[in-house]
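Task card 7
Instruction: Convert sequence to structure tokens.
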Amino acid sequence: MKNYLVSEFFGVNDPNKFIASLQETIHQVPGQGVFAGDNLFTFGRNLSFLDDEVLMAAFHKNADTVTEKAILWRTAIVYWAAKQGLRLDGDFVECGCYRGTTAKIISDALKLSCTGKKYYLYDTFEKDPRNEGLTSAQFEHEVKARFSDDPHVVITKGFVPESLNLVSPEKIAFMHIDMNNTAAEMGALNTLFARMVPGAVVVLDDYGWILHRDQRLQEEIFFKAQGRPVFELPTGQGLVIC
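Output:
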């Protein structure tokens, strides 16, 4: 039995005080099966994804920032959903790939280059404080360099949904949406959802976060019209099975 602790929590008023209080709380619970990070704290859990040697090897190889390490449980959900897509017809899609970390973990863990599937990644690659001062062009180059040995990965720069008209798959076996923007996410769904094959999974990264409540409300309406309920996960993600 293992624990997983990362001191990355979002939206707290006093991070140091919060972490100190959390550490004190952890000392009061059984010493196994504790997960803390990414606004999640739970104990007495199996945390079975920590025992997945393939996933964890890819994760440790590619996740190099505190935030990337903190969202391990979210990454495990994406990995599970993508793994379901391996047995289906169609390609993979990620709208809002940012640094490409999650996609790289999934691609490596599933050995996607050996499956014949393509992985379509979309992002604006606009200048962002998190990009350590990189220009948009430098940021895009850095991400493309990350996938230089992955010919099955197709990276497209631009705003969604417009960029989807440049290149996108006809059939989709898995889709991950993480754009923190209502118009962009609804544009992606309106353009691509009809191409999802039966049994494919959509992971909505922002669905359960209060900060992105407007997205949830719009996506809830969209999926209700499709007859597909969205399940909100404790990780803050939304899960839809087509």
